[in-house]
Write the structure tokens for this entry.
Amino acid sequence: ELKKTLQASSSLFQLKDSPPLSLTGLIRRIQNDEERFQKVLQSFGYFSGAVKIRISGKPIQSLRSLVLRNTKSFPVAIKITTGPLFKFGRIKIRGFEKIKSKPVVSNIQTGDPALGSEILKTESDLIAQLKVKGYAYANLGERRLELDSKKQVMDVYLVAIPGQKIRLGKVVLKGNNKVKSDFIIRKVSWNNGDIYKPTTIKRYQSVLSNLGLFSSVKVRMPERDKLPKKILKPVQVIATVEEKKMRFVGFGGDYSTNFGAGITGFWGHRNYFGRGEKLKLGSRVDRIGENEFSKINKKLNLEFNKPDYKIVGQELVSEGKILTESFDAFDRDAVLGSIGLSRKFGPHISFTGRAA
């Protein structure tokens, strides 16, 4: 894994099919690789590793362009000595005492290999722990890493900066033109003054995305630098949407040996009255070629759904059909219809009841 990472970070490997135009260009690539290799070694816990790169058996510091002027190719040899693997020693995290809580650290433990990636994961986890507790603008201070070459350990000192606990306020909408604001704001799942939680923001963004009215939805807190130093009131939440085209049309055709040819067409509107009402008008003719032209099957279909009917999360669903059909065994002229309610009882559970 270390070797693969070293090669992936190396200009010499990644650009081997694009040779430099001069020896100076090759030396520059080597010098850049030396620095990258050291960083990779350190990220894997090898802090006393050594990197030696030679061209045609000679160190680059001793090369002169005159020496290799007539050489057509320059063999490059890379020798990497990892040295001992350092391990985590003392681990201290400050800042959580300000909120009377203890940090949960699972990525770095004393005695584990001192991997840089695990430190980054730990920092990300610390931020996440603070945000779950309502500290939306939590941050980390400058980390301090101390190496003991004799003991081959790394001591880690991290500082958490929780900031102030944030309460959620009203939603500020941006980007909606055809979808009415009260319909979008009605979907808010928190009360003014509720403690901030990342899941609350994500849930609201998911609800708006699932409406089928927007091609893009972003729900976020204001930038930290735009907030007052002392936050006393609930913080406004910014919801930015990009609306889809509200009207849509479609058509298609099919053919089967049993029923002949059929043609289908439809027109629809995603937001008929401005609050997510879905209207779809469709028609179909079939048994073309099987029935006489005056007796081909015809169907006219109308669907209308109204979200948040009476209460949030409850949808009025209705459908109507006008049919004129002629089959070998029977003929039928009919008007059919149904109306009902669909209610969500969670993100994955819903119930629909209809009366025909």
Remarks:
- The first helix runs from residue 2 to 8.
- The longest strand covers residues 331-344.
